[in-house]
# Entry
Amino acid sequence: MGKSIFVDLTRCTGCRGCQVACKQWKNLPGEETRNTGSHQNPPDLSFDTIRLVRFTEARVDGKLEWLFFPEQCRHCYQPPCVRVADDFANGALKHDPETGAVYTGPSIMELGGKKIQAIRESCPYDIPRSRKDGKGLAKCDFCLDRIRAGMKPACVLACPTGTMVFGEEEYMLELAGKRLKEVRKRYPKAYLGDPGNVRVIYLYQTDHRLYYQDPLD
Ligand code: SF4
Ligand code: SF4
# Structure
């Protein structure tokens, strides 16, 4: 039930079209940033950057590879962030029963300090980010406004390589399984990240910890 996004990372070219489309649709400001030694820019997610393409150079089976990781909220089936936020303010984070989207409510901006820290720490993927003054949280909302109007999320629509596909959860899981079989012919260690637990299903060609720093490590 609900919607999902399948992300085949073996197709991602790191063009950042999804990152820019997200900023445009959400009317989010650009950020002054700095060179951190890679093409990744800005260096991390923030209150104003809720989707980010991570760039990593990694040695995969003895070969140097460039790994690209379009990072966003995974829209967990049982989102711990919503459970924790509910203890502090009703509706601070919401879980849409129809699509499965997890999104912020206005009362999130009234929270700060340890409450916001507790919500952030509940996320196993280190996704939500607070404002510079430590108040409130921002995260991807699955483009719920677009989905409800029958459109794809802005990032999916912008992707020129077919890395991201959006649709009904059962079809996305089926597609992910099919693609995994194909990709394994080339990358035998490929696998799917947490299918059945999250609505943004990544197909990794190798260990996900090579794509990004896992907060649980
Ligand atoms: Fe919440 Fe994090 Fe799951 Fe997104 S990935 S729904 S922010 S717990
Ligand atoms: Fe990768 Fe598609 Fe995003 Fe470009 S738009 S960085 S190909 S996911």
